[in-house]
Design brief:
- The complex is a heterodimer of chains A (183) and B (180).
- Chain A has helices at residues 3-13, 25-33, 49-60, 71-76, 79-87, 116-122, 134-143, 168-181; strands at 18-21, 40-41, 65-70, 92-98, 101-102, 108-109, 127-131, 148-153.
- Chain A has 183 residues and is of the alpha/beta class.
- Chain A has a single domain (3-181), classed as Rossmann fold, CATH 3.40.50.970.
- In chain A, the strands form two sheets. Chain A has a six-stranded parallel sheet, sandwiched between helices. Chain A has a two-stranded antiparallel sheet with strand order 5-6.
- In chain A, helix 1 (3-13) crosses helix 2 and helix 1 packs parallel to helix 7.
- The longest helix of chain A has 14 residues, at 168-181.
- Chain B has 180 residues and is an alpha/beta fold.
- The radius of gyration of chain B is 15 Å and the shape is globular.
- The relative contact order of chain B is 0.20.
- Classes of the chains: A alpha/beta (183), B alpha/beta (180).
- The A-B interface holds A 20, 40, 42-49, 51-60, 77, 79-80, 82-83, 86-87, 168-169, 171-172, 175-176, 179 and B 31, 50, 52-56, 58-67, 69-72, 74, 88-89, 91-93, 96-99.
Chain lengths: 183, 180
C-alpha cells in the first residue's frame, strides 16, 4: 500500500469526513488523490495538524474529522495523543502514514521506533491499531473505537505530484465552506 | 501600595474583569496550559464557556486555530515562557491562514523577577511578538484589563491575532507559583 492508496481508501470510505493533512508528503498526496479537494492542508507548523484537528472535531461533532499525518509529524507532536485521550472526541481519527522516513526533507530515516498503534492502545481513552493493506484499513475504519489512531504501514514509495506548498487563504476558505456544507 | 497587594488572586477582581472582557467581545472558548497565575481567569471563563486544558502552548495555539476554522472564537492563555513553545504554530499556521486569536500572556521575567531563568523570555516576549507582526498591549493597571481583553478579542474577530501582556504588577506574586 502506498500513501495514495491509503488516502483513496479513506476518501472512498469516509467521503463526508473533514480531512486535516499534515505538511509535506501528506498534503501533496491528498491534494493529488482528491483533485485538490476542500481539505485543511498544512504548509508548515509540523506537529500541529493533530491538535488543530482536535479543535475542529470539538466544534463540528458529530461530524467525523480525520487527521492524516506522517510518522515524523506524529512523533514531533506525540503529546497530542494524550490530549486527545483526555478530550475523548468520539468523532476524531488520526491516521498515521508511516513510511519510516522524513520523505519531504530528503528521505532521512526516522531513527526512533514509531509504535503509534501500541502507544495509542496503551493510553486510556484512545484506541490504536496497525494496518498494512487497504483491506485492513477499511476494516479498521469500521471497527476501531474513536478517538483512535490507525498506523498505516506504507511499503511502496510514490512520486509526489501536487505541490506541498499551499496558498493558506485559499485553503482556509475552501475548508470553511466544506464545514459549512455539513456532512 | 503595589497592585499585587491590592488585588489578590483569591478575590474575584481584575481576573474576572479580564474574562468578562473576552466574553463581552464574543470569545466563546479558551485553551491553556495549567498555570497558577492564569487560573482565576480560566476559572471565570470555565463558568461560561468551554475551557480546554492541553499539554503545551504550541498545541493550544493549533487547537485554537482549528476552532477558528470551525467558526469558534477561542482565546489562548499562556505564560510568556510558553510563547517560545508556541512560535511555530503562530508563525506557520495562525498568521498565514489569517486566524484571529486573542492571546492572554502573563508576564514573568520583568522588573523584580527573582528567577533568572524567567528573565530572557520575559525580556524577549514583546520583541518576538512584534517580529511576527502580532501587536502586544501591555497592561499593568487593573482598570484596563477588561477593555484590553475586549479589544484584542475584537481584533481576533477581524482575523487579527493580538496579545495582551499581563504585567507582574498585576499578579498576586512574582516569585511563587511559577510553572517552570
Amino acid at each position: 500500500m502506498n500513501i495514495f492508496q491509503a488516502l483513496e481508501t479513506l476518501l472512498e470510505r469516509r467521503p463526508d469526513a473533514l480531512y486535516v493533512a499534515a505538511l509535506g508528503t501528506v498534503t501533496s498526496a491528498l491534494r493529488t488523490v482528491s483533485s485538490d479537494g476542500p481539505h485543511l492542508y498544512f504548509g508548515g507548523a509540523m506537529g500541529s495538524a493533530a491538535p488543530a484537528a482536535l479543535g475542529i472535531a470539538e466544534r463540528v461533532a458529530p461530524r467525523l474529522v480525520i487527521a492524516a499525518v506522517g510518522d515524523g509529524e506524529l512523533l514531533m507532536g506525540a503529546r497530542t495523543l494524550w490530549s486527545i485521550a483526555g478530550a475523548k472526541p468520539s468523532n476524531l481519527l488520526v491516521v498515521v502514514m508511516a513510511d519510516g522516513k522524513y520523505s519531504m526533507t530528503g528521505g532521512q530515516r526516522i531513527e526512533t521506533p514509531l509504535a503509534a498503534a501500541e502507544a495509542a492502545s496503551a493510553i486510556p481513552g484512545i484506541s490504536g491499531c496497525r494496518v498494512e493493506s487497504t483491506e485492513s484499513l477499511s476494516e479498521a475504519l469500521d471497527e476501531l473505537p474513536l478517538p483512535g489512531v490507525i498506523e498505516t504501514v506504507l511499503s511502496d514509495g510514490i512520486e509526489l505530484l501536487a505541490s506541498p506548498f499551499v496558498e493558506p487563504h485559499r485553503v482556509r476558505f475552501a475548508f470553511e465552506a466544506e464545514i459549512e456544507r455539513g456532512g | 501600595m503595589a497592585s499585587a497587594d491590592r488585588i489578590s488572586a483569591d478575590q474575584p477582581g481584575w481576573e474576572s474583569a479580564l474574562a468578562d472582557g473576552l466574553l463581552s467581545a464574543g470569545c466563546d472558548a479558551a485553551v491553556l496550559v495549567p498555570d497558577k497565575r492564569l487560573e482565576p481567569i480560566a476559572s471565570r471563563l470555565r463558568s461560561r464557556v468551554a475551557v480546554r486544558t492541553l499539554l503545551q502552548e504550541e498545541e493550544c495555539v493549533a487547537h485554537a486555530g482549528g476552532q477558528v476554522l470551525a467558526g469558534g472564537r477561542p482565546a489562548v492563555l499562556m505564560q510568556c515562557s510558553g510563547l517560545g513553545n508556541a512560535l511555530n504554530a503562530l508563525a506557520s499556521f495562525v498568521i498565514p491562514y489569517g486566524l484571529g486569536i486573542p492571546l492572554v500572556i502573563s508576564m514573568r521575567g520583568t522588573l523584580g523577577e527573582r528567577n533568572p531563568a524567567q528573565v530572557p523570555m520575559g525580556r524577549a516576549t514583546a520583541t518576538v511578538l512584534g517580529a511576527l507582526g502580532i501587536q502586544a498591549f501591555a497592561v499593568d493597571d487593573p482598570g484596563q484589563v477588561q477593555a484590553t481583553a475586549a479589544g484584542i478579542t475584537d481584533m481576533a474577530g477581524a482575523g487579527v491575532t493580538a496579545a495582551m501582556l499581563l504585567g507582574q504588577e498585576l499578579l498576586p506574586s512574582a516569585t511563587t507559583g511559577a510553572r517552570r
